[in-house]
Amino acid sequence: MDRGTVGSANRGRLQVETRTEGISEVVTPVGELDHHTADLLREPLERAVEEGRARLVVDCSRLEFCDSTGLNVLLGARLKAEAVGGGVHLAGMLPVVARVFEITGAEAVFTVHDSLDAALDT
């Protein structure tokens, strides 16, 4: 199966919106983040860092599911952003997604905010 088929088959499960706000690149995944959809989030995060926008704010308020592959995408983005003096801020996580970060201990390595506004104010 080629990547084009995988991506087109799963686009309905995850959409990613991006915008620049001040010094932050705001990335909003909408839907389910798993091993089938992970590249749809990975690519804009990596592109932002490559283009010099290393303060990444991931608005998780519309993220309904995140598995270990999705968590690894965010951890990878964190490493790349921190390597160039930036970081990854997570905002507005729904309880089901926050639980994944709590269980794995990943919440300790990210800056987590209750809302997008709070993430953008820091």
List keywords for this structure.
six-stranded mixed β-sheet, alpha/beta, 122 residues
Structural topology:
Blueprint: H1 3-10, E1 14-21, E2 24-33, H2 38-50, E3 55-59, E4 63-66, H3 68-83, E5 87-91, H4 95-104, E6 111-113, H5 116-121
Parallel strand pairs: 2-3, 2-4, 3-5, 5-6
Antiparallel strand pairs: 1-2
Mean of all residue-level pLDDT scores = 91
The coarse silhouette is globular
Order of helices and strands: HEEHEEHEHEH
What's the oligomerization state?
single chain
The DSSP helix count reads 5
Beta-strand proportion:
25-35%
Largest sheet: 6 strands, mixed
Class inferred from helices and paired strands: alpha/beta
Distance between the termini: 43 Å
List low-pLDDT spans.
1-10
Number of strands: 6
Helix content: 40-55%
Rg over C-alpha atoms, rounded to the nearest angstrom: 13 Å
Q: What does this molecule look like?
A:
The protein is an alpha/beta fold and 122 residues long. It has 5 helices and 6 strands; from the N terminus they run αββαββαβαβα. Strands 1, 2, 3, 4, 5 and 6 form a 6-stranded mixed beta sheet that branches. Helix 2 runs parallel beside helix 3. The N terminus is likely disordered.
Give a nutshell description of this structure.
It contains 5 helices and 6 strands.
